[in-house]
Design brief:
With 556 residues, this protein is an alpha/beta fold. The protein folds into three domains: 2-98, Alpha-Beta Plaits; 136-358 and 370-435, Peptidase S8/S53 domain (Rossmann fold, 3-Layer(aba) Sandwich); 474-554, Immunoglobulin-like, CATH 2.60.40.10. It is 19% helix and 24% strand. A seven-stranded parallel sheet has the order 8-9-7-10-11-12-13, with helices on both faces. Strands 20, 21, 23, 24 and 25 form a five-stranded antiparallel sheet that branches. The chain is globular.
Length: 556
């Protein structure tokens, strides 16, 4: 058994000093004094709590039981006070313990041995895989938990068919949809190939000639491919359900379709679209803006904030341009769990986008590395254009990393953690450290908290505090005829890493407006009238909450 990281402590273990009397007499004589001293100690550190003397567990050693649990810090303070007494040898918190999952549950799926991203049998304790077999003894997910895969759609597959719910196709452009119509209730992937003749069309002139990617099918398999069916592979969370929501077609898609798909997936009403009977708890976005310099837009941020308000977690791939994630949306939006990719050695994958500031990337997960012949195996289709035979294929990318994290989030929902911020905090805590003896090594700035490690996944609340207040704000101006834009920049605050920022503005003497979320350490505040005074408040935030606001006075 191993110590739990739970904060709730139910009592103390106390050893009483020897005094030349029998253990029984000692226990009786000491019980009243010990209980009284414990109550005094707990009143000092936790207000007031009832304490009773429980069972003897060893010679001269008793359990003091609290009527209500206290935090570990409070219990340690009370133990220190008791230990200062002459009749107490030592005192310590009676911490919870849990079974330590040390034996992996290896499924019978015939291709599982090739899934190094789930469990790397060639390296000690699973290497830099997500170590899924070490959580499967606890849970494989619940069919009541839904992960929306907003992607190219999903093709029929014997390893997926039992997991897939009815979804929707949100592509409005008929040519991109490639299925003969625009929006409809069929999210099946008809193929997204680009032929030489397609490339002659204006809509596809910037696209490369490629076979169909079956991208959504590959992503879905990593999340929830059926386990133990004598077929192919296993997903990270084979017990959950997949909601296929199609927003990408030939040569990608449009942000407007992705936004509509996100809102619908979380249970919002979209005009002309039937209601979603199975809203998702998790949304996987293995996609990104086509422009290399397209940070999170207001439309995206509003959609993500809405989704989060509905209790849904958004997981996004960091992108595959080997560049800073701060210019890749939606991974750079606030309230998104952004995921970069690692190789089998635990290094940052050569193609993966990375962070320039701590908090840019939330965490890393296996994405594969073709140069090392270690890509990610998942469900696929053999068709070069339209669908043919279901099968399996290897792929690499942050698109392959993100679904590991989406599946982990679904496992947390299964275990009863249903607040998005609480889910994010536990994912950040469920990581193994990056190796530092590899080329292209990760750091917390480049790759986030660590590499997803499901053996460390727990419902216990990790200790996280809000970041400290923003300081050293620099202001620059862009002037128009009657108004100006203020551009505010600031360095990362100290304390636990900030993952988001927000600002609001008020005229001098007036009330503040609504908060505006912004992910980078930058605020653009338009529409400031010349020769008028304004106040701007800025806060840094993370999953634990917001810092105290910092106020800046402006006069354009």
């Amino acid at each position: 058994m191993a110590p739990s990281s739970a904060a709730d402590i139910g009592g103390l273990i106390v050893k009483i000093a020897e005094s030349g009397v029998s253990v029984l007499a000692l226990a009786r004589a000491s019980e009243e004094a010990l209980a009284r001293a414990s109550q005094e100690a707990m009143a000092d550190v936790a207000g007031s709590t009832d304490v009773s003397v429980g069972a003897a567990i060893a010679p001269q050693t008793r359990v003091l039981e609290f009527a209500e649990p206290v935090t570990q810090a409070q219990a340690e303070q009370a133990a220190a006070q008791l230990q200062s007494r002459a009749d107490v040898v030592w005192a310590e918190p009676d911490v919870p313990v849990r079974i330590a999952s040390t034996t992996p549950v290896i499924p019978s799926d015939p291709l599982f041995a090739q899934q190094w991203d789930m469990w790397d049998a060639d390296r000690p304790v699973g290497g830099y895989s997500v170590k899924a077999p070490l959580i499967w003894g606890t849970t494989t997910g619940s069919p009541d938990v839904v992960v929306a895969v907003i992607d190219t759609g999903i093709q029929e597959h014997p390893d997926l068919d039992a997991q897939v719910l009815p979804g929707y196709d949100f592509i409005r452009d008929i040519d991109r949809a490639n299925d003969g119509d625009a929006r409809d209730s069929d999210p099946a992937d008809p193929g997204d190939w680009i032929s030489a003749s397609d490339k002659l069309k204006p809509a596809f002139s910037e696209c490369r000639v490629l076979p169909s990617s079956w991208h959504g099918t590959h992503v879905a398999g990593t999340i929830a491919a059926t386990q133990g069916n004598a077929e192919g592979i296993s997903g990270v969370a084979p017990g959950v359900r997949i909601l296929p929501v199609r927003a990408l077609g030939k040569c990608g898609g449009y942000l407007s379709d992705v936004i509509a798909a996100m809102r619908w997936a979380a249970g919002d009403s979209i005009s002309g679209v039937p209601a979603n009977p199975t809203p998702a708890q998790v949304i996987n976005l293995s996609l990104g803006t086509a422009s290399p310099d397209a940070p999170c837009s207001r439309a995206q941020q509003e959609a993500i904030s809405f989704v989060r308000s509905r209790g849904t977690v958004v997981v996004a791939a960091a992108g595959n341009d080997a560049s800073p994630v701060s210019v890749q949306s939606p991974a750079d939006c606030a309230d998104v769990i952004s995921v970069t990719a690692t190789s089998r050695t635990g290094a940052l994958a050569y193609y993966a986008n990375y962070g320039q500031r701590e908090g840019d990337i939330t965490l890393a997960a296996p994405g594969g590395d073709a140069r090392l012949d270690t890509r990610i195996l998942s469900t696929f289709n053999s068709g070069l254009e339209g669908p043919e035979q279901p099968g399996y294929a290897l792929a690499q990318g942050t698109s392959e990393a993100a679904p590991h994290v989406s599946a982990a989030a679904a496992l947390l929902y299964t275990l009863g953690v249903t607040d998005p911020s609480a889910v994010e905090r536990r994912l950040i805590a469920a990581v193994q450290p990056f190796p530092d003896d590899v080329a292209n090594a990760c750091t917390a700035t480049r790759c986030g908290a660590g590499i997803l490690d499901l053996s460390r996944l727990t419902v216990d609340e990790p200790v996280v505090t809000p970041p400290q207040s923003v300081k050293d704000i620099a202001v620059s101006w862009r002037y128009g005829a009657a108004a100006a834009i203020a551009v505010l920049r600031w360095p990362a605050p100290s304390g636990d890493a900030a993952t988001k920022y927000r600002w609001r503005v008020a005229r001098a003497g007036g009330e503040y407006g609504d908060w505006t979320l912004t992910q980078p350490r930058l605020a653009r505040i338009p529409g400031l009238r010349l020769n008028r005074a304004y106040r701007v408040q800025i806060q840094a935030g993370n999953t634990a909450g917001w810092s105290a606001p910092t106020t800046v006075r402006l006069r354009p």
